[in-house]
Amino acid sequence: MSQSNNLSDIIEQYIKSILNKNFEVELRRQQIADYFNVVPSQINYVIKTRFDSKHGYYVESKRGGGGYIRIIKLQFVDDGDLLEKIKTDVGSVLTLNDALTIVNQLISDKIINPITGKIIIAAIDQDALGHLDKAQQNKLRAHIFKSILTKLEYEN
Asked: What is the pTM of this model?
């Protein structure tokens, strides 16, 4: 498992290094799999778990012999546009893992600083919402998170 996660990290970094040069990349699943000596489903796993809208990417996929994966790094006119997009993506429920992913991406993109990130997580983590069942936690977490993002929009 550790090696698989490590390999996933390496594949992710490889793709991100390409995206650092371009905001869009078109990959052939099989070519990447051959390059890393893995099965194509490993590439699918990395794409699905690390290159979704929560991480700031849009992914198109075409299957078949001439198939490809197109990954586009989302660009926003300003931080407010990004925060609005995140609020829309969050919807009415938000798991703690998804919230952590989003907060870490906001820190990585320098939209918020690490201290602000810690405060956001403290407001929506298990300790703060522990008296509720999981479904209620996820609903309240989404509500609180979107409210925080709204306040950040006005600050930025």
From this structure: 0.57
